[in-house]
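[worker-b] picked up task from shared queue
[worker-b] task type: protein-ligand structure
[worker-b] ligand name resolved to flavin-adenine dinucleotide; SMILES cross-checked against name lookup, match
[worker-b] sequence length check passed
[worker-b] input payload:
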Amino acid sequence: MLQTVSRAFFQVLAGSRMLKTLASRYGMRARGGFARRFIAGERIEEAIETAREIERNGLLVTLDYLGESVASIAAADAATRAYIGVLERIADAAIERNISLKLTQLGLTIDRATCVDNLRRILDAATAKEFFVRIDMEDSPFTAVTLEVFETMWQQGYRNVGVVLQSYLPRSEADAARMNALGARVRLVKGAYNEPKDAAYQSKADVDAAFVRIMQLLLANGTYPAIATHDPAMIDRTREFAEARGIDASKYEFQMLFGIRRDLQNSLIREGLRVRVYVPFGREWFPYFMRRLGERPANIGFVVRGVLSER
Ligand SMILES: Cc1cc2nc3c(=O)[nH]c(=O)nc-3n(C[C@H](O)[C@H](O)[C@H](O)COP(=O)(O)OP(=O)(O)OC[C@H]3O[C@@H](n4cnc5c(N)ncnc54)[C@H](O)[C@@H]3O)c2cc1C
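[worker-b] inference finished, payload out:
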């Protein structure tokens, strides 16, 4: 309940231009910028440097060039070209070839066909360079269309692409079965958006119970699923299920966000489990940052400290 209120509050704040301007001024300062806790930087060089350090510690990475809900076809085209440039930079840097992106960044809110074309351009470049591309899942008005676009790509023969399912959506269990039947790679998350009662479970207990059910479906019948959570209870349930079923640790991976529970990331690695860190970067970091605050209002403390220490 508290989390729902907090998410709604931070979602409203995320729409504030004044706050965005203020955050842009302080958030990404080279030293002490408060947004740097969750964002690797505004430039690809900073993301690559961060990814290298993460890889040196034995973890895997996926890079997300931040952006969402672009307002014009020209902006969607620019984001697509920028992503293709990012692929080249990652390949040159010889870090792992794995990216995450959002369909509204490629124009989904403006025109579906344009978005599909843009995604295809990225997947073609990614195929040529042997990248894996994860399509992040956004808020519930985009769930069905995101899965449809994914399935279109799958039917066209792309296999270097995967999706995300959110356990707060009651529909996700059926979607997981559908993705398993295709042989598609799924990342399971709880869900980060402020959703209405008729679209999503509202209580943590319901979201967690669904997470466990879907995790079991994916581990038992899926293709190299990614269990993306910082919740120790969800991680324990996953490990217990894998052990009980004799599912080897190489058949799935855990995923966590840059800047969250690094202790847990490292301890899982030490125990021989796979952990991938999601590394976001780019100038459009504000909405992503606000979602991280909404998940855990205690995070506001380091923002306030960061701003005060700048003055
Ligand atoms: C790799 C990855 C990719 C994701 N991709 C998507 C996506 O495509 N679509 C989508 O809707 N959501 C996505 N998410 C976000 C996800 O839906 C959740 O909002 C987020 O992971 C928090 O849920 P949790 O599973 O960690 O559990 P929670 O029960 O929310 O948190 C468990 C514990 O994790 C820690 N924690 C969680 N969040 C924070 C935070 N912001 N700051 C500090 N500590 C925190 C706290 O210790 C907390 O007690 C992704 C998450 C990960 C890890």
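[worker-b] attaching auto-annotations
[worker-b] The longest helix spans residues 73-93.
[worker-b] releasing lock
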